[in-house]
Amino acid sequence: MLLYVGNCCCSLRWSTLFIALIYMVLSVPLMVTFGTPVFLYKVYGADIEISTLFSFCIICLSLILQFAAGVFLVVATIQKSAVWMWPWIWVSFLQSAGLISIAAVCTFIYIYQVTKGEIPDDPEEPKTYAAFTIYGIVLYFATSVVNSYKRDLYPETASNSVNEQAEMAPLSAV
Prior knowledge:
The protein has about 170 residues and is mostly helical. It has one domain (about 10-155). The protein is built from five helices and no strands. It has helices at about 10-45, 50-80, 85-115, 125-155, 160-170. The mean pLDDT is about 80.
């Protein structure tokens, strides 16, 4: 599922702590950015399309989950507890997979529209899809770093390959 990343320029613990702090710091302004229209709609009845309001609510819920997972990761890194890293690993992996999938599907739709001769309304669409893809890949790498640190904390649970299991199996089971 995830790659193993060794110590590159600093230890995996400091890399994990840095990733957790960046992850949390970036989620707060994004929550404010996407939460403001939702707040204005709920409190003042601002004129916002329902589809836009729905997507902003989904993004805000995702960012709240991202911030909570970042808090878990900071606690896990400081206490050196692999159990508390699981929420961040799952949230980040699912966000990464979702971003890359959405970007791929939208890119194929865009290419299909262009080959049919239809000119899309927004010329910035390919740049947005590229940004989603790059963010998804960076998030996947960050998830791999955190997972590598989790594996280093508990090396005995790091991998149970088929070869190791076969070596431990009794001959009667083969």
